[in-house]
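note to self — DONT lose this again. spent like an hour looking for the file last time. sequence + predicted structure for the chain T wanted, 71 res
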Amino acid sequence: SDVLHLTDGRNDLVILGDQTDKVLLPEDQWTKTGVQTQTIENVSHTFDLYEHTQDSTVQLKVEQTIELTHS
């Protein structure tokens, strides 16, 4: 997966943004697994969590303020 090459050593990719940002996810490759609040640089962020369908060790965290669409 392309995302795997962008992740940290734990296979997590964190996407920060706001309502002007957009993320397009292939629906057949990602499953929403939950919601998580995390503090980054003293600011609280809420993320939708996604797990890759072919490799459950790869996790994508998309800040909830970002517009997310599926292809």
